[in-house]
Amino acid sequence: MAKEIIQDSSKLMSSFASFPTVLVTCQENIITVTLIHIVSFLPPLLGIGIKPERYSYGLIKEAKEFVVNIPTKDLLKPTIFCGAKSGKVLDKFKEAGLTKQDSLSVKTKSVKECPVNIECKVVQELVTGDRTWFVGEIVNGRIADDYKIEDSIQYWRGVYRLPGNILK
Ligand SMILES: Cc1cc2nc3c(=O)[nH]c(=O)nc-3n(C[C@H](O)[C@H](O)[C@H](O)COP(=O)(O)O)c2cc1C
Fold this sequence. Notes:
- The chain has four helices and twelve strands, in the order αβββββαβααββββββ.
- With about 170 residues, it is mainly β.
- The protein binds flavin mononucleotide.
């Protein structure tokens, strides 16, 4: 296997196939997020990487909580919409045809149409280069009994896909 030396970090990062894509609710707004990861199991912590120029950034900073809503393939259209429009100028719940559902342990609403809702309270903020990682402790959540992980949306570099084949 011949390998080329690549110093362009953007090209190196393009080598990842995809990352999970979620709808994060913050106050009355929704933002599509791909930079999400489990950053600790004990305590249970999720990290989301948000650019400071996003409208959502100030909302999360102020409320100190957010909800991670996992969309499935039938929600691709609103997922793209919430990642293209700003809540500063429109009501994304209304315009994307999504429904607010009361959360269990946080004031922030959940997205009713998403089969998974994970409620988080911010416990840490980590500034890394061009974005801030909000670390949220999972305090409650819901999973629909017919949720299929195979239907969750993956994204990277302009390509939306479903999770791949199981190897083992
Ligand atoms: C698939 C997808 C993934 C995205 N992931 C992120 C992300 O991880 N972090 C981020 O700050 N913005 C991300 N964005 C961009 C925001 O969703 C987008 O700028 C959005 O319009 C911001 O909304 P707001 O102005 O209401 O905060 C993503 C967009 C798309 C389409």
